[in-house]
Design a protein that fits this description.
Blueprint (H helix, E strand, L loop, with lengths): L1 H23 L6 H32 L17 H7 L2 H16 L2 H14 L1 H4 L2 H18 L3 H30 L7 H19 L7 H13 L7 H4 L7 H24 L4 H7 L2 H22 L12
């Protein structure tokens, strides 16, 4: 629960001030500031949502209930399809079991696949049932998040990226062989991870700026405004208010680095299980210091904030 409050109060709530300001006034700021706002929003929503889940999982464990984990280091994914298998896992499982499989295995969809194989060939024909099911799954996902064009387009764009990746897989394999790219090289894996994070970020901001046109306007502003900020105040305008905001932002940067390190360590096993093995006095000291930091800095940073982002869904 403490780790969840750290994510929410020291990271998500601090970044929310900057993101709200940039998204509301992106036309007044440089493209670099708008891009930074988009990346901060990706970190904010992950810290907010996964922090909420950590708090709920901890609260339920106090009552003897063990919930399924809902996140598995999604920003370390190497493709958008993998990202959605790691993000909001319970919702993804529901859509897979109750929409994707019933549509993908339906008689009318198999007939469509048979007709597609005769017209387009076996390779493309075999992908038709999955493609049709994915379009409908992502249309439904967009509507679940909000009955607006911004969310509908957000859902369809995610679906189209996944379908295009599935269709283009043979081409990618040939290009990798031609360029002698090895899948096990860390540099290639790092490129895939960064590429996926950037793509997910640009898709993610579409419905979050406001309307669809405003979301597209922010993305367009990032690529068309080449003004370089000349000071920290012009790069992050919200920091110009007071020194307390700068301290909060430094804490947010530190928490982001800590979150990144913990995510790396989780690849080798449970960090929580290793934390349980350290001596009790050290555990008590770490937890007490963390709670003091939350009270001193987190409460002030969270003042006036709304509830968790996903409270509206």
């Amino acid at each position: 629960m403490v780790w969840g409050f750290v994510k929410k109060m020291l990271l998500a709530n601090v970044l929310a001030h900057h993101v709200t300001d940039i998204f509301a006034n992106y036309g007044q700021y440089s493209g670099v500031t708008a891009l930074l706002g988009a990346f901060m929003y990706s970190v904010q929503i992950y810290a907010d949502f996964s922090g909420y889940m950590d708090i709920m999982c901890g609260l339920c464990e106090i009552m003897g209930i063990r919930l399924t984990e809902n996140f598995c280091r999604p920003y370390f994914s190497k493709s958008i399809a993998e990202y959605w298998r790691r993000w909001h896992i319970s919702l993804g499982e529901w859509f897979k079991n109750y929409i994707y499989y019933p549509i993908g295995l339906s008689k009318w969809n198999r007939k469509l696949a048979k007709a597609a194989r005769s017209k387009l060939g076996k390779r493309f024909g075999d992908t038709v049932p999955a493609s049709v099911a994915l379009v409908l799954v992502w249309l439904t996902t967009g509507l679940w998040h909000g009955a607006s064009w911004a969310y509908i387009v957000w859902g369809l764009v995610n679906g189209l990226f996944i379908i295009a990746s599935m269709w283009m897989e043979p081409v990618y394999d040939r290009l990798k062989k031609l360029c002698r790219i090895r899948e096990d090289r860390w540099l290639w894996r790092a490129f895939q991870t960064v590429r996926t994070f950037v793509l997910v970020t640009f898709i993610k901001v579409l419905p979050e700026v406001g309307t669809l046109s405003q979301g597209l306007g922010l993305i367009g502003h990032i690529f068309t405004d080449h003004t370089l900020p000349t000071s920290l105040g012009s790069l992050l305008p919200y920091l110009a208010g007071s020194s307390a905001r700068k301290i909060d932002f430094i804490l947010a940067i530190g928490t982001t680095l800590l979150l990144f390190i913990v995510s790396l360590l989780q690849r080798k096993g449970s960090v929580r299980a290793r934390f349980q093995k350290i001596p009790m006095p050290v555990k008590v000291l770490v937890l007490n210091v963390t709670v003091i930091i939350l009270v001193v800095f987190g409460v002030e940073a969270s003042w006036g904030e709304e509830a968790f982002l996903y409270a509206q869904f």
